[in-house]
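re: ur question from yesterday

yeah so i grabbed the chain u mentioned. its 429 aa long if i counted rite. heres the sequnce exactly as i have it in my notes:
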Amino acid sequence: MLGLYNTIMLPLRPIASIWGALRSGGADGGLEWRERRARTLPRCDPGGLWLHGSSVGEAQLVGLLARRMRELRPELPLSASAFTPTGRRQLPAPPDVDAAFFAPLDFRGLPGRVLDGLRPRLLVLVETELWPNLIQEADARGIPVVMVNARLAPERMGRYRRLSGLYRPLLLRLAAVAAQSDEDADRFRALGLAPRAVSVSGNVKYDLPAPEGDAAALRRRFALDEARPVLVAGSTGVGEESAVLDAFRTLAGDRPDLYLILAPRHPQRCAEVADALRKRGLAFLPLSAARGDVSQHDVLLVDTVGELAALYRLGTVAFVGGSLVPVGGHNLLEPANVGVPVLFGPHTHHVAEMAATLEREGAGIRVGDASTLAHETARLLDDPALRRGVAARATAVLEANRGALQRTIECILSALDAAAPDRAGADLP
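ran it thru and got these structure tokens back, copy pasting raw so excuse formatting
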């Protein structure tokens, strides 16, 4: 089945080459393409840990894991990779890791070049990074692969079963899986993974620290009055900004001082979002151009990466995107982590356990469309006691679910020590 996968992937190589040529004009684009083709290899001492997370959320967890590993094993070489450009920007930098880079494309032979260059003792994949060639080529070199914060969405189980000839051998090559929930663990076992290889760690996102800073300092930075209500809509996707803007205009009819902070999931989409703002007659300012006072505008458009978590502190109410459209939802805990009540849409299959817990505990509110988004936001804006209650219950949910980081680190250390060539006297860290 791996051979069939590579046969299907073969025609994509020239397409990838064209894509890479278009992106390689600048220094950053050129380096990205060389790393994706494994022409430029990361520099890191052998015998260490390679941590990989695809996009922004996973890359944040890579950073958390790397910093904890650095504390526990300061001499252990650490390298980190991501697949998406936004994820790459979120990867930790030295001294937290020794090397950070774009993961190679999953064409046969490319992951092997990186593995041969790094010579890691262990490869750690964050969440569901089932790249066939990466896993197979690591296994062929005797490099154990561990998957942490692992999840399998129930709606994808049919696909995994239909393609069991591809996925089951990949799963059997995993040395260990630390799953987010009992349900995720059961799904891994149902696909053929040995029960002893699967543990339940919980979701490491509950252990992500709150961003530095405070709301008052941010309000002063942007000259936003303490009493001015702010709606922060974060990680929005294609088709979602329209709903958010419709809700905002409805709300602003009764609350003309309402301010919107709008952060598309992918900053490269800001030009089209800016067009949508102009068509609605909304005055906006890109964050990259903000130099203090933003209060004369209706909207702050976040066109940068890495600042959303802190900007949630400005919110009176927050909405987390990828959920009004069938993307699957993004990290609902970021607003909760800074004491801001969170709303989210019906499509939360990527964060199903998180969404269900927040909704069950009255710590988050699910909405269905622009109309209900406006309605529920209005309720929260008009009722300070309700806002405080939702935020307090979210804080309680966070506290009750912490601890996954430590369990995940224990899983990694166990696999790392088992992979050592000589536990008693290896000259590796």
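noticed a couple things. Confidence is low (pLDDT under 50) at residues 422-429. also The chain has 19 helices and 14 strands.
anyway ttyl
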